[in-house]
Amino acid sequence: MASALINVPKKAKRGEIIEIKTLMSHIMETGYRRTASGEIIPRDIITSFACRYNGVEIFRADLFPAIAANPFMTFFTVATESGKFDFEWIGDRGFSETASASILVE
Amino acid sequence: MRFARVIAVAALLIGAGIAVSSLSANEIPQGERRSGYDFMTPDTQAIQNDDTANPGMLWVLDGEALWKSKTGAAGRSCADCHEDARAGMKGVAARYPAFDKTLGRPVNLEQRINLCRVQHQQTTALAYESRDLLALTALVAQQSRGDAIEAGADPQLEPFVAKGRELFMRRQGQLNLGCANCHDDNWDKRLAGSAITQGHPTGYPLYRLEWQSLGSLQRRMRACMTGVRAQAYDYGAPELVELELYLMSRAQGMPMDSPAVRP
To answer: Could you tell me the pTM of the whole model?
Structure first.
């Protein structure tokens, strides 16, 4: 039951610098921990995150085991035109989630 | 020499006796009560203030999906009886733990959700601290945001509040500490670098950065008991519900802020 919280301003002026915030539900199991019986808990993390603005990639991040559960990613971009932000998270065990948000640029 | 040592030990014991008798003399006056939120750094407060940065909201999202999904032999969803959680569950969490007439004792919010599942949806109870139970609890608790805590006002609960209070004051564990030793007497100090706080359960279930997860008040209380090296009660034990009830009644009138974020 993966879910994401996305915060993109609904409206912006052309050329305005806007902040984009994303929060993805994920346990981010490091692969270094062991169970009570000593077996290693297999690594299960998000390995990459990307954001496209009207199809053009504007932000990408690689994630590693040291990153906390439920990764919160925030970054800035310039509002150039109305359209859509597409977000994509990819991880271990075939984890793949997408989300999108639209913006009106005046 | 030996005689002097005996006197010294006796003096220590007397000193300890005085300390024990003064326990519980320092209950926090109404005006000085502070939520755990006030003890946090501005950075951590900022995570809680923004619903798109608060990871607890991920559980609320899951809770909304579960609220609408039909389950059990009855084929009913929570929404079929309670309608939209936003309306139907307003202020409910502020009244829990509440007295259950059939059981003749208080039940907490998690137990109420499970009773509903078993009796009305005719399905199985969810395990304590499972994602689904936390999600439903978070959704219900969120609807009481800003509402004043009322739990414990019901006169039928009086004996249970008293039992919870007794547990709060009682010293336990190898460290021989009662809850009150920290949360009534020393809440303005720090323990291993962390604020001790007054222990008001305003924001449960809450996201602890240390847990990297949402967790219930019982999880928090059990961790405290393990911390004083006592044997923690099992999840759902009547003693834990009574302690939960006492903590809520102690925080009566304080606003709820579920799902809160704590360090």
So the answer is: 0.89
Q: What is the CATH number of the domain that holds B35?
A: 1.10.760.10
What is the domain count for chain A?
1
User: Which of A72, A73, A89 to probe by mutation at the B interface, max B CB count within 10 Å?
Assistant: A72
Which residues of chain B have a Cβ shorter than 8 Å from any chain A Cβ?
47, 50-53, 55, 57-58, 61-62, 65, 131, 209, 212-213
Q: Which of A3, A7, A23 sits opposite B62 (nearest CB)?
A: A3
Position B259 in a domain: yes
User: Per the structure, how many domains does chain B have?
Assistant: 1
Q: CB within 8 A of A66, min separation 6: which ones?
A: A30
B68-78 pLDDT, tens digit each: 999 999 999 99
Report yes or no: A89 and A46 within 8 Å, Cβ to Cβ: yes
B170-196: pLDDT as tens digits: 999 999 999 999 999 999 999 999 999
CA distances for B133 relative to A4, B38, B82, B140, angstroms:
19, 28, 17, 11
Residue B107 belongs to a domain: yes
Question: Looking at residue A6, what is its pLDDT?
Answer: 95
* CATH number of the structural domain spanning residue A92: 2.60.40.10
Query: How far is Cα A66 from Cα B38, in angstroms, rounded to an integer?
Result: 29
